[in-house]
């Protein structure tokens, strides 16, 4: 095939989406509806691939947050694809944690080469996790209900911070918000908390080149995601002549990928909303340096309806 198909989607509904809460880096789980959305996404991908003679995803990518990992698992089950139970060499987990895209590229290459040689028809694919696909860090807004934040900041400031390309919430005070090792049950004024970074992101924190955020704008997400897109996703796709990849991210990381790949302007990206659990296909020209060709949702009508609901979050009752 002359095109690379990226199946990109926002995770299924999480329990904090359901409660109309800014989630960010909080580790929310999928709701029953979210699992149903992920199952439907897998069916849509399977049907699309079968109808159009497209290879099923040959590699997967998720964020380091549980809701994307759960979504990926459900989708792979629908596609009848698995993850390796055992990985030889220095890998001891089939879901690789990519904490520095430069350091791990050689390792990824080594793994994919060995797998291709040993079992070229395997129905198990590697899935790589990276913090670079994480949701935008919502700073002090994390764990807060959207209608409450809207009331506190007013509509103009709320929409600027939430939607403008450079809008950034106040920085989080992790001593108050984040679950601490010594006081996991402390009442800090937050109903939901970000996991302790020294535990969840130990590998990332060991790398001195990585500065995990305390608050982010969409432009910040683009800046930390673009190197991973170029140096891992597209480079691996080129080296192994892949036909399709599956990327499960978040509203902000999917918007960032779309902005980078399609070249959406800073102004126009403000009007882009990403619904939960509906695959977006982005086709890139493999013969022309992965030039953007086109994009389309596998359920465009539902995507349009649910994207409008995303835009109205904070202004309406809980979904």
Automatic annotation (TrEMBL):
Q: Which residues form the active site?
A: 11 (tele-phosphohistidine intermediate), 135 (proton donor/acceptor)
UniProt entry keywords in alphabetical sequence? Glycolysis, Isomerase
Enzyme class label: isomerase
Q: Could you give a GO molecular-function term held by this entry?
A: phosphoglycerate mutase activity
| Pathways involved | Carbohydrate degradation; glycolysis; pyruvate from D-glyceraldehyde 3-phosphate: step 3/5
Where does the entry annotate site (Transition state stabilizer)? Answer: 250
Q: What is the top-level taxon of the source organism?
A: Eukaryota
Query: Which residues take part in binding substrate?
Result: 10-17, 67, 135-138, 146, 162-163
Matching SMART domains, A to Z?
PGAM
Q: Which reaction does it catalyse?
A: (2R)-2-phosphoglycerate = (2R)-3-phosphoglycerate
GO BP annotations of the record are: glycolytic process
A Pfam family cross-referenced in the UniProt record is His_Phos_1
**Entry keyword Hydrolase:** no
Q: Which residues form a coiled coil?
A: none
EC no. given is 5.4.2.11
Q: Does the keyword Ribosomal protein apply?
A: no
* Family under the similarity heading: Belongs to the phosphoglycerate mutase family. BPG-dependent PGAM subfamily.
* Name of the protein in its database record: Phosphoglycerate mutase
């Amino acid at each position: 095939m002359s095109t690379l198909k990226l199946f990109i989607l926002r995770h299924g509904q999480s329990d904090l989406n359901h409660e109309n809460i800014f989630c960010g880096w909080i580790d929310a789980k999928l709701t029953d509806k979210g699992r149903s959305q992920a199952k439907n996404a897998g069916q849509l991908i399977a049907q699309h691939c079968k109808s159009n003679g497209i290879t099923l995803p040959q590699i997967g990518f998720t964020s380091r947050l549980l809701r994307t990992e759960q979504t990926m698992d459900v989708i792979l089950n629908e596609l009848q694809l698995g993850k390796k139970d055992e990985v030889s060499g220095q890998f001891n987990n089939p879901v690789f944690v990519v904490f520095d895209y430069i350091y791990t590229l050689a390792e990824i290459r080594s793994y994919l080469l060995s797998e291709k040689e040993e079992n070229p028809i395997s129905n198990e694919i590697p899935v790589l996790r990276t913090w670079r696909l994480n949701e935008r860090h919502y700073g002090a807004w994390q764990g807060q209900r959207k209608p409450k934040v809207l009331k506190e900041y007013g509509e103009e400031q709320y929409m600027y911070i939430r939607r403008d390309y450079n809008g950034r919430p106040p920085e989080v005070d992790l001593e108050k918000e984040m679950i601490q090792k010594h006081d996991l049950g402390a009442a800090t004024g937050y109903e939901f908390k970000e996991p302790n970074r020294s535990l969840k992101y130990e590998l990332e924190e060991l790398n001195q080149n990585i500065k995990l955020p305390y608050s982010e704008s969409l432009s910040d997400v683009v800046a930390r995601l673009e190197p991973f897109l170029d140096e891992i996703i597209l480079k691996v796709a080129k080296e192994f002549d892949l036909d399709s990849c599956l990327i499960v991210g978040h509203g902000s990381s999917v918007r960032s990928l779309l902005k980078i790949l399609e070249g959406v302007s800073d102004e126009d990206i403000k009007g882009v909303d990403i619904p939960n659990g509906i695959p977006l296909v982005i086709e890139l020209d493999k013969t022309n340096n992965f030039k953007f060709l086109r994009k389309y949702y596998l359920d465009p009508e539902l995507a349009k309806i649910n994207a409008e609901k995303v835009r109205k979050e904070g202004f309406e009752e809980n979904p």
